[in-house]
Amino acid sequence: MITTAKRLEVVEEYYFSSKLREVRQLISEGKPVINMGIGSPDLSPSQAVIDAVVLAMQEENAHQYQSYQGLPELRKGMANFYQNNFMVELNPNTEILPLMGSKEGIMHISLAFLNEGDQVLIPNPGYPTYTSVTNLVGAVPVYYDLNEVNNWEPDIETLEKLDLSKVKIMWMGYPHMPTGARGSLQLFEKLVAFAKKHDILLVNDNPYSFVLNDNPMSLLQVEGAKDVALELNSLSKTFNMAGWRVGMVLGNAACIDAVLKVKSNMDSGMFFGIQKGAIEALKSDKTWFQSMNSIYRKRRILTEQLAEKLGCKVYKEGVGLFVWAKLPAGITSAEDFIDKILYEKSIFITPGTIFGSNGEGYIRFALCVKEEKVQEAILRITN
Predict the structure, then answer these.
(1) The domain at 47-284 falls in which architecture?
(2) Which residues contact residue 3 at a Cβ distance below 8 angstroms, ignoring those fewer than 6 apart?
(3) Which of 70, 72, 328, 337 is the most buried (most CB within 10 A)?
(4) Residue ranges per domain, the chain?
(5) CA distances (Å), 151 to each of 160, 175, 203, 351, 382, in order?
(6) Looking at residue 369, what is its pLDDT?
């Protein structure tokens, strides 16, 4: 009998991978499930982006292997995007590496810097992939608490009390997923100083900056951040290109080079046409963000109404692609609560528990559902 690797004993199948099978089964049985669980944009990229891909198909080298570092003009486009939107200057040759989605960057960074037994600071609640990748590479998750009392921001004084001698990486991400907390440059400054003091690689996961957020920020805006920090970003949410798998890691040049050593042994470059589409997307001006946010704003208003119909208290300060809400008093299990709604009302909502123990008592709604569907969900709850 062929046995699996021991590393699989420390991870489970990704929640959405298994839960969406359950949802698909209900749909196959004729249940009209409204999926408000997963943050996969239902909107399309701009026509200019699609046209750029179509035109790229005719170029001579369109179907060949591509550079491990991406097209020079793609890296330049990413540098211009950061300069125009964050006032951050980056060297496109040494401080930017395109990725096939920022999620793969979590694995690449972990493989590049973590040895077995190293420790990793992970937000609770936070993106589950930080934990699963840490476990897969044999490192040890150390969770730091985020809570509503502290506006879902880490307490630096509490972090300083930890034994940090084995900590190699600290994951963070603002706007925060799943809560939508904005963060601040003051917080970023404190975290950069903390990372420098303890020789920790600080990694900011930043894919939600332009969704319903009037003040986009980058960790790399902080003076001296490049000494100890990397930032992940993605075109998935900003430009409705989730399935295209285009992301980037930016920052410290030596760290970028280390990540490239891993990445170049794991793929053979991003498809040429997708890179050309990404280059066009990165040229988008503020009217693009305004048009997208006009749609998301209407959806958020309706989704907040839905949450309130369920008796939940919405975290109103949140930005990004999700609505974070506290369960009604007396409800003890987020997972039981969402399953009841799924099976009785055919509405799928994400339980906060999948993001960590501090997610218990909360649920998350994605804004990736058309207005009429959210209105239909409201009717289902009220009827």
Answers:
(1) 3-Layer(aba) Sandwich (3.40)
(2) none
(3) 70
(4) 6-44+287-380, 47-284
(5) 19, 12, 20, 20, 31
(6) 94
CA nearest neighbour of 143 among 116, 114, 172, 115: 172
Residue in the structure block whose two tokens are 């100083």 = 193
- Name the E strands within 188-337: 201-205, 229-234, 247-251, 313-314, 322-326
Q: What is the mean pLDDT of residues 112-123?
A: 97
CATH of domain 6-44+287-380: 3.90.1150.10
Q: How open is the CA angle 176-110-166, to the nearest 5 degrees?
A: 90
Residue 121, both tokens: 């600071």
With a threshold of 0.85, does the pTM exceed it?
yes
Backbone angle region of 212, left / alpha / beta, with phi > 0 → left and psi within -120 to 50 → alpha? left
pLDDT digits (tens, 9 = 90+) for 177-210: 999 999 999 999 999 999 999 999 999 999 999 9
| Rounded Cα distance, 328 and 23, in Å | 24
The number of CA neighbours under 13 Å toward the Cβ of 359 is 24
- Close Cβ partners of 341 (under 8 Å, ≥ 6 residues apart): 310, 347, 348, 349
Of how many residues is the chain composed?
383
Beta bridge partners of 140: 119
Parallel/antiparallel/unpaired status of strands 201-205 and 247-251 = unpaired
- Provide the residue type at 227 as one letter: D
User: Per residue, what are the HEC states of 29-72?
Assistant: CCCCCEECCCCCCCCCCCHHHHHHHHHHCCCCCCCCCCCCCCCH
Give the containing element (helix H, strand E) for 365. strand 362-366
- For residues 73 and 283, the answer to whether their CB atoms sit within 8 Å is no
What is the per-residue burial (b if ≥16 Cβ within 10 Å, else e) of 295-312? ebeebbebbbbbbeebeb
Q: What are the CA-CA distances from residue 375 to residues 22, 301, 306, 347, 369 (Å)?
A: 24, 11, 8, 12, 10
Same fold, 6-44+287-380 and 47-284: no
